[in-house]
Amino acid sequence: MAEAIRMPLLSDTMKEGVIAAWHKKVGDTIKSDDVLADVETDKATMEVTPYVDGTLLYIGVEQGKAAKVNDIIAIIGKPGEDYKSLLDAPASAPAAEAQPQEQAAPAQPATAPVAETPAPAPAAQPQQPLSGDATVIRMPLLSDTMTEGKIVAWNKKVGDIVKSDDSIADVETDKATMEVVPYVDGTLLYVGIPAGQAAKVNEIIAIIGKPGTDVAPYLAQDGAATAQPAAAPQQEAAPAATATPAPATTPATTEQPAASSDERLKASPLAKKLAEAKGVDLHLVKGSGDNGRIVKRDVDNYQPAAQPAVASVQPAATGAAKAPATVAQPVVTGQEGHVDHPLSQMRKVIARRLAESKFTAPHFYLRMTITMDNAIAARKAINEVSPVKVSFNDLIIKAVAMTLRKHPEVNSSWMGDFIRENQHIHVGTAVAVDEGLIVPVIKFADQKSLSQIAQEAGSLIDKARNKKLQPQEFTGNTFTISNLGMMDIDEFTAIINPPDSCILAIGKIEATPVVENNQVVIRQLLKLTMSCDHRVVDGAVGARFMQTLKAHLENPVTMLV
Questions:
Q1: pLDDT tens, 413-454?
Q2: Peptide bond preceding 440: is omega within 30 degrees of 0, i.e. cis?
Q3: Which parts of the sequence belong to the Peripheral subunit-binding (PSBD) domain (predicted)?
C-alpha cells in the first residue's frame, strides 16, 4: 500500500516549505528513519522523515521549489505499485463514496453479531486502502532523542469529523507536550493508543478516512491487530457509559457522572497531567484561564475542601470517646509509606541519555576561579544602554561562544569512528522544568550581540518552562552550560550532554577575601568547572580553553576585539 508523504507543519507559523535538498531519488529504497529531504521553513531548515519503509515512487516538488503544508511531496510504496490513485484521490472521491455507502448499511449490523466474518473481509476489501479512503496517522518523531510518545489526551473521538489542521491529540515527549496534527480531512475511524499510554515512534495511533471505511487492511499491513478486537473496547465502553448514570442516585457514586464529563472540561494538557499526578479532581478546581480554562497555576494553588477532613476526623473522635488517651495520635504520623511516581517521557530520556554519557564518555574535570569585578562593572554599564536586561548567564554564553571560536577542538562531537569538528557555534543552556531538564539552544551565539543573546535566551527559557519549545529550538547544541549560581551553589560538576564533548558548570559569584600585593582585598569570585570527554578533548586542550574563557570574563572588552 503506497503512502503519501505530505509537507509537514514544522512550526506554528509555517504556511509552506521549500525543498532545500532531496536525499533520495525515485527508485531508491527507503527506511522509515531515513532522511528523505531537507525542508526550509520560516524558522529553520529541518529534515523530513517518512516513517514508512518502501521504494520512493514519486517526487512531487522539485528541489528549490515550495509546497504548501499538507501538499503531497513524495509517495513511497512497493516497486511498480500504482500510486496515481493517491494523486487523483480528490477527483475520484465522489465515485468512490457511492460504493462504500451502499455497502455500509449491511456491513455495520454484520460486524457486531457475526464473529466469523473476518476471513472474507480482507479478501473482499483489499482495494479500499489503495483508493485513498483512509490515512494512517503514526506517532511522529518530535525531537531528535524521542523514541516514544505518551498520549496525554485525545482531542477527538472515533466518529468525529477532523480537519487537516485540527489537533487530534496532545503527545508528551521527552522535551515537551506537543500537538499532533493529521494534515488530512475526514472522519476519525480508529484510535490505537488510549490516553495515558505510550506509543513508539512510527506506531499507528489513529486512522482517518471516509465514514464506513474498513481499517482492518491498514492494521493488518502494519502487523497490528484486526479491526474487530479494536472495536470491542468501544462496544464495551457503550454499556459502561450507560451503566454509570444508573447508580448515580446513590451517594457513593455521585462523582462518577462528573468524571464522565472530561470531554467538556476546559484544561491545558499540563494541568491535566499535574492533576493526575497529585490526585486532584479537576472538576473541583476553578479555572483562571480564558473562558474558565484550568491552567497549571490553578492546580498548584488548589486547596481541597474541608469536608473530607471533617469526615476523617469523626472516626478519630469516636475512638477518642472510647479511649481518652489522645496522646497516642502523634504515633500515626510515624507510619512508613511511599509514593511511586510514573516516569514521564522526559525523565526516561534524561535517565537513558545521561547514563549513556556518564558510562561511555570518559569524563575529566577542569576547575578555575574567575575574578568577576570587571564583569560586574561591565554588566552595569551595558544594562544602562541595552534594550533588554543582560544577565551574568548571558555574559557567560557570549564569552563561551567567543572562546569556542578560538578553540574549535572543544566545539566537537564524538561520532564513533570519527570526530566531527563543528564550524557553527550553538550554545545550549540547561533549564530546569517540572518534569526534569531541557536545553534550549542559542544558535550562532558567537555572531550575536549581548542584547540579542539576552532577548533570545529569555524567550527560550520562558517557552521551556511553559512547554512551548519547538524541536528546532532545543536541538543542535555544540556546547552546553549549566548554571546553579542563582540557587546559591558554590560549585558542582555536570554530566556531558551528548553530542557535545564538554559542559560548563557555573556556581555563584561570592565576595571573597584574597591576597594581592601582600594585602587582603575583597574580590567577587566565580567558580567554573568544565566536564570534558577525554575521547575528544585532552587535558591541555581543555586547559587552554579555560584560560581564554577566564581572560574574556575578567576583561569583557576582549570579547569585542
A1: 999 999 999 999 999 999 998 888 899 999 999 999 999 999
A2: no
A3: 266-303
Percent of the chain scored above 70 by pLDDT? Answer: 77
Q: Is 434 a catalytic residue?
A: no
The listed CATH number (3.90.180.10, 3.40.50.2000, 3.30.559.10, 3.50.50.60) that belongs to domain 346-559: 3.30.559.10
Give CA–CA dist 120/97, Å, rounded: 21
The one catalytic residue in 12, 262, 538, 552 is 538
pLDDT in tens, 290-331: 667 787 778 888 887 655 444 444 444 444 445 555 555 565
Phi and psi of 57, rounded to 5°? -95, -25
129 pLDDT tier (thresholds 50, 70, 90): very low
pLDDT tens sequence across 243-269: 334 334 344 433 433 444 444 577 777
Dihedral (C-alpha) 479, 484, 486, 487: value to the nearest 10 degrees?
Answer: 160
Q: 255-260: which pairs have CB atoms within 8 A and are 24 or more residues apart? A: 255/281, 255/283, 258/283, 259/283
User: Residue 462 catalytic?
Assistant: no
- The mean pLDDT value for 201-218 works out to 89
DSSP symbols for 524-547:
EEEEEEEEEETTT--HHHHHHHHH
Angle between helices 392-406 and 539-554 (to 10 degrees): 130
Closest CA to 530 of 497, 554, 559: 497
Choose the catalytic residue: 71, 363, 434, 534: 534
Q: Say what the pLDDT of residue 410 is.
A: 97
Neighbours of 283 (CB within 10 A): 15
CATH topology for 134-213 is OB fold (Dihydrolipoamide Acetyltransferase, E2P) (2.40.50)
All three cell numbers of 442: 542559542
H or E element at residue 482: strand 479-483
CA distance linking residue 46 with residue 39, whole number of Å? 5
Nearest of 429, 425, 405 to residue 503 by alpha carbon: 429
Residue 121: pLDDT above 60? Answer: no
Cell of 531: 566536564
Cα 451 from chain centre: 28
What does the pLDDT read at residue 120?
Answer: 38
Q: Which residues contact 292 (CB under 8 A, 6 or more apart)?
A: 266, 286
Residues 489, 490, 494, 500: is their CA dihedral positive or negative? positive
Q: Which tops the pLDDT comparison, 239 or 209?
A: 209
Domains 3-86 and 346-559 share a fold: no
CATH class as words, domain 3-86:
mainly beta
The phi, psi pair for 438, rounded to 5°, reads: -140, 155
What does the mean pLDDT of the chain come to?
Answer: 80
